[in-house]
């Protein structure tokens, strides 16, 4: 029975987005659609242990869920009109046409879950729930939140979508750029929280990285003509390629300059570079994710730290800073400048950022400053900066690393 339950969970992770998307198109209510999909999941948990896993489990879930939708529609006052719609939709049962129909629904669901009417935390939770098939408990554990808080967040998000009468559609024209930016931001935030956890005892949460990468691939496949969608996939593929090298045997962080590059996943790098080439072919004007992917590619192509094209990276960061006006980007540019032209130049730029209000409690500012001071052999100042960085971070593994480096000085 345990094996069958494992099969149900695996199928659900793969098929949840398609089932919820198809139901949302029918009932025009994302909350109700998820309830119907959950009913189908419960039916699978009840029947598959006794009857065995069906030959096409995804189709089984879809069929059962649509039957639930039909039963519901029949009980409504205007059931005849809606029943006709269900009948027409279920006519698409085989072949490429049906596949495209379902994928269109999934894309609509992506834009619904990431709608700008929702706050960022709600978009992230709802996306992981509807498109990732994660349980409320799994989302809560991933973001170090309580399960009731996440459940409430998801409920409020569904109510907000219903109240705003958000259409289940892919936006067109000028609205598409704004809405796509919201979708890409959610995927990017999920990946970053997994790649470097902001709080807790773990340096990374690989399950979040994997889910974000899956979503990035999904959006890129569904929107092949959007360069920023291709670029985000490229960025996350290359970043994810370093996962095995980012921690040691004890789970402690290993910085980029100290990583064993033989541990980098060459398949993910190849995929990332291919996605970047696809983005390059679509436009000569690089967006925010496009520039970040170009930076990641510079690292991926280099076999050593010394062999990295730091001047190109500094140039990409300069352009990214112009586009975003972000002090964090300037912080990264300072690192690149220090590697390309020496630590003194990087420190000059960092000193200009020390009065920036948004970086006042940002632990990486003193951490980077400490690194540059070490390279300039100003050890006492460096130790103080590393200790200050350790006091600011909320991640236990990162705090231990910073304190260890300070002690070594």
UniProtKB/TrEMBL annotation:
Domain RNA polymerase sigma-70 region: 17-77
Domain DUF6596: 179-279
Superkingdom of the organism of origin: Bacteria
Alphabetic keyword roster: DNA-binding, Sigma factor, Transcription, Transcription regulation
Residue span, RNA polymerase sigma factor 70 region 4 type domain: 111-161
PROSITE patterns: SIGMA70_ECF
Pfam families in the record: DUF6596, Sigma70_r2, Sigma70_r4_2
SUPFAM superfamilies named among the record's database cross-references: Sigma2 domain of RNA polymerase sigma factors, Sigma3 and sigma4 domains of RNA polymerase sigma factors
Keyword presence, Translocase: no
Family assignment from sequence similarity: Belongs to the sigma-70 factor family. ECF subfamily.
Name of the protein described by the UniProt record: RNA polymerase sigma factor
Lineage per the UniProt record: Bacteria, Bacillati, Actinomycetota, Actinomycetes, Streptosporangiales
């Amino acid at each position: 029975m345990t094996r069958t339950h494992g099969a149900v969970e695996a199928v659900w992770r793969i098929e949840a987005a398609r089932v919820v998307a198809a139901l949302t198109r029918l009932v025009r209510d994302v909350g109700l659609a998820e309830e119907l999909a959950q009913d189908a999941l419960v039916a699978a948990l009840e029947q598959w242990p006794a009857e065995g896993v069906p030959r096409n489990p995804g189709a089984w879930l879809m069929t059962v869920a649509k039957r639930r939708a039909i039963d519901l529609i029949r009980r409504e006052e205007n059931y005849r009109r809606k029943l006709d719609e269900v009948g027409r939709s279920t006519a698409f049962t085989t072949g490429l046409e049906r596949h495209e129909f379902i994928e269109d629904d999934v894309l609509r669901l992506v834009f619904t879950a990431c709608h700008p009417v929702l706050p960022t935390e709600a978009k992230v939770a709802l996306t992981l729930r509807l498109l990732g098939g994660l349980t409320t408990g799994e989302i809560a554990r991933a973001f170090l939140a309580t399960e009731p808080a996440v459940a409430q967040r998801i409920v409020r998000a569904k109510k907000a979508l219903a109240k705003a009468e958000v259409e289940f559609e892919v936006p067109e024209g000028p609205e598409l750029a704004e809405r796509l930016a919201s979708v890409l931001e959610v995927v990017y935030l999920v990946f970053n929280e997994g790649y470097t956890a902001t709080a807790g005892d773990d340096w990374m949460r690989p399950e979040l990285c994997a889910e974000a990468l899956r979503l990035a691939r999904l959006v890129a496949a569904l929107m092949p003509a959007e360069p920023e969608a291709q670029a985000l996939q490229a960025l996350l593929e290359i970043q994810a390629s370093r996962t095995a090298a980012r921690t040691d045997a004890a789970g402690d962080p290993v910085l980029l300059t100290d990583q064993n590059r033989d541990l980098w996943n060459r398949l993910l790098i190849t995929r990332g570079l291919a996605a970047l080439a696809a983005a390059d072919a679509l436009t000569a004007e690089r967006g925010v994710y496009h520039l970040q992917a170009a930076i990641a590619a510079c690292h991926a192509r280099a076999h050593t730290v010394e062999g990295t094209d730091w001047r190109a990276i500094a140039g990409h960061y300069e352009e990214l800073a112009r586009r975003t006006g972000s002090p964090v980007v300037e912080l990264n540019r300072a690192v690149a400048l220090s590697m390309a032209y020496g630590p003194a130049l990087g420190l000059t730029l960092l000193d200009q950022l020390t009065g920036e209000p948004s970086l006042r409690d940002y632990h990486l500012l003193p951490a980077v400053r400490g690194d540059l001071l070490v390279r300039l052999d100003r050890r006492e100042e460096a130790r103080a900066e590393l200790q200050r960085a350790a006091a600011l971070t909320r991640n236990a593994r990162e705090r231990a690393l910073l304190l260890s480096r300070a002690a070594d000085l």
